Amino acid sequence: MRNIVVAPQPLAVEAGAEIFDQGGNAIDAAIGAAFVQGVIDPSMTSIGGFGTMLIYSAPSKKMTEIAFHGTVPRRAKPDMFVPLAEEGSAPLATGTYLVKDYANQIGYLACTVPGAVKGLCQAHQDFGSLPLKVILQPAVRLAYEGWRVRPDQWNFWVEPPPPGRLPEIRRFNATPAATAIYSNRGELWKVGEKVLNEDYAHTLEAIAAEGPDAFYKGEIARRIAEDFRKNGGLIDEIDLANYQTVTNPPLSIHYRGHEVHAAGPPAGGLVALEILKILEGFPLGEMVHNSAEYIHLLSQAMRIAFRDLEKYLGDPQFVSIPMELLLSSDYAAQCRMQMVATQGHTGEVEHSNTTQVCTVDAHGNAVSLTHSVGACSGVVVPGLGFLFNGQMHRFNPVAGFPNSIAPGKRRTTGMSPSVIFRDGKLFMVLGAPGGQGIIHGVVQTILNVVDFGLPIREAVSLPRFHSEGKIITLESRIPVKTVRRLEKMGNRVEHSLHSYHRTLSGCVHAIHRDPVSGDWTGAADPRDGGMVLRS
User: Fold this and answer.
1) Mean pLDDT of 140-160
2) Which residue among the candidates 45, 354, 359, 445 is catalytic per the annotation?
3) What pLDDT score does 344 carry?
4) Which of 164, 192, 250, 371 would be 65's cystine partner, CB 3.0–4.6 Å?
């Protein structure tokens, strides 16, 4: 068995392979790749962001989730934003709440306390093998030497955002420090142009030398707090010093003889596992893959699970979530009896501001890591170089709801990093960027492998669909005749113009062990580029 790493950004994959070549394990490689992603893909993630990761430790044979979601600053108020009258307390289909001046999307009030540095460094402390300075070196180097804008990045920047969401150029020009780095005199950097970020390099060097305390208690924390005070933000030294990750065993179920582990609330793994539990009662492998009947069945299960997401999912430190019930066989049986259309979101899908990395090493350790900025706020503290998250747009701006703003609260997310075992052996590691579409992509990829026995590259590449409520949205590679059949079955269908729709159902990246040969294969979703490397 060899080391393997897969991610959407080739430079991040190369960084992971470089760390493997220096003797690092799967955790080291994933962390190093993640820090590189924060440098070279600022719309998707940064050390001003958040995320969650599943780690399988081969020596202990234990699964661990390290969740490092952003937290609401302690001085935040439930009514700190003015909701637009016509929207009230209802979000758009993308999950965004519209407020006056887009203050929950852009600028200093849009930011939650970032968890990325604490989470990645905790994973290194608990499971890593190489010094942190070695692991961060590829990211430091790229920040100093610069990275070139990729075509897929450019396409994301210029693509019209969903209704109610701001374009990237407005975010990149939200603060003078952001404009100086992430735009070219107020305009978007073009494909192939190089972006230099010496300030980010210095910040990473401080973290490499001093660990996470440099960010949460040292000079970096002081500068963050000072800049937020000057600009009406809420994050201060106490918020940073008090930030904590949450470490637990991940959620798990058994699905057709496989042990499936996924990230717990407020991440979306609960929803993915609920869908699988419902579908286990149907002989999917005997159906025609992506036939109208198959899509109709899966869409009904998805609608039920997303209905439960809206009803129950939140930060478990603030709300009670009946997780045992939702993942029980009895509840799954009840759901199968009510497989009828449920109300929920329309077919609209949100912009993806997230990324993914998967690693497996020669010793059998594995990582699935999903991290994000949740749509960047455009805030760059002068001299630090990195963009802060814009997570507050997903909190209800009206008090009194489960997802209303409260100090210390973490928002819900579709993140679903997953690890699967078969016959007690590591079988598959996968995850995706893509907002709520992550859940759809992860579930469909698991079904493609487990129920249909497909090779992993085919499993992540096949046409996919998305359904949270009234509409089923299909990639254009699903034939028109299937669309017509679905409509005759009573479904409202939207046939996308995209053959490979990157935000429809996530962009799944995965590593899979062939159960017969034992060979490991990685797959990078063609919807989002990327690559696989062995070392």
Assistant:
1) 95
2) 354
3) 41
4) 250
